[in-house]
Amino acid sequence: MDAKTFLRNHIAEIVEIDEDTFEEVFTFFKPKQVKRKELLIRGGETVLQEYFVVKGCLKTFCHDEHGREHIVQFALESWWVSDFPAHASQARATMCVEALEPCEVLELTYEAREEICRKWHSMEYFFRKKSNAGYVALQKRILSLLQNSAQEKYDLLLTQYPQLFQRVSKTLIAAYLGVSRETLSRLGKHDK
């Protein structure tokens, strides 16, 4: 499925949009091919865009003062990715976004999204619903990190996103869960 159809179907899951409107909305998006290990967002740079993932897998991450990587989000097909706090205020990124495999994304600038929302109420509703869903998912992730054991976090991730375990290294999954690679190996022995 091409990027345009993929986005059209994604929007149609939430709002009805006629073909002429969609054609105009699509002109605000910029298709982009991303190489494995390419950074879409670098820490310290002003964040003016967000990305809709058509194909591939990306990660949003930061490093602490000891150089340890902390993964905030993986983004698979039909997910949106950015450093959202920086994007919302068009500030400097505190996180990076990197492709874990060759990716195809649709880039949407902050100004373009604002223009889309001004012109079409249905698209403003779409973006509000997507933002709310992202906020809910983030709160659930924070609660899981605070309340669940390492095994429970592992099991939850495996249940919700089994495809991640086929596409992402165990080292990255360990960083996402906040456990060591050795701990992750022990956790994984339980699902055989």
UniProtKB/TrEMBL annotation:
Domain of life: Bacteria
Domain (Cyclic nucleotide-binding): residue spans on this chain: 32-118
Pfam annotation, one family: cNMP_binding
UniProt protein name: Crp/Fnr family transcriptional regulator
Originating species: Flectobacillus longus
